[in-house]
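Batch job 17 of 40 flagged for manual review because the log was empty.
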Amino acid sequence: MPLAPDELEDLALTCRRFISDRISPIEQRVDDTDHMDPHVWQGLVKESVDLGLYTANVPESLGGPGLLIAEQTRLWEEFGHTTWPFTYLLARPHRVLFECTEEQQERYLEPVLAGRRTQCFALTEPDAGSDNSAMRTKAEKVDGGYVLNGSKHFISNGNADFAIAFAVTGPPLRGRTPQVTAFLVDQGTPGYTVGKSQRMMGWSGMDECELVFEDCFVPDDQVLGPPGEALRLGLASVAQRRLQIAAYCIGAMERLLTLSLDYTRTRVVFDEPLYSKQGIRWLMADAAMQPYLAREATYKAARLCDEARADGKSEVELSRLFAKEISIAKLYASQALNRVADVAVQVHGGMGWCREYPVERLYRDARVFRIIEGADEVHKEIISKAL
């Protein structure tokens, strides 16, 4: 059931206070050290669970709040006011875990909902990013289970307690995409190792890892969902993931605008506030348009998805029916964030290049959003094919 407008704003305010009181004070330290203290993190997870933020994406049937996509989008916009690694405190259970059997729910889903176990989504490979048909990790059926061989990379939170690992289990039934199955693989399983940590331009404090499977046996009761249909299950969450990125980018733009306005109003240049210069004001005006337009596109797509879900459409159907609208929102918002980040550095001048100021960090972090959840070119292709 939809939240009343004041209820949604109360929840958004809860997000805002959680970020300002608990997360903002440690952002700089995490960036400086590229390390997240596990005890501090676990405390944040517990608070997020208690506030109902950690399970914001969970349906009522599994004990969650059952928020609409547009309502979740509002929370993601709030989390745009912090750096990306801390978004792992919002709507954390991956949607594909909702496919768990009753036995799997007890072992995997329920501990994740309670913040006691962590997960990682192991899909991307060195030769298979946007093109999942190029996946090389294989799973061979044997008596009692499967044997996995292959590797993954750029896996966020790669040191998690268990991986949702995707592997090819059969040839294509049509087209060129093979049959792919998802597996629940526990940390410490023989043949499953976490490889090197991959250092990134941004996202300090987040484990981005390689995962390696060498003759790794996974029993049948750890197959997640129907064998051969994992990519369909993955697509079931693509609409929401792309809208989450778009909403996050909106919040990040608003944060950059606030920082830039504060700076240009107090920085005195030639005896006048920097903001008094027409060139600076026009830069800020251009930047102010970006989150406004991105918000219109993002919430329109979210509302379309919610209306279709109310009419009984499945999550997979949402991704197909509104592919154009979702891609427009994600593409525009991620590009707009990069434009606003560039303006923020420009108006801060040398201070925008200085690591003492958050603008430098936000500028670094912004670039990846034009790559993850579909690179710009992928979304342009989706949009052009829909025309």
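Reviewer: the log was empty due to a logging misconfiguration, but the result itself is present. The chain has three domains: 5-94, 119-227, 237-386. Unflagging and moving on to job 18.
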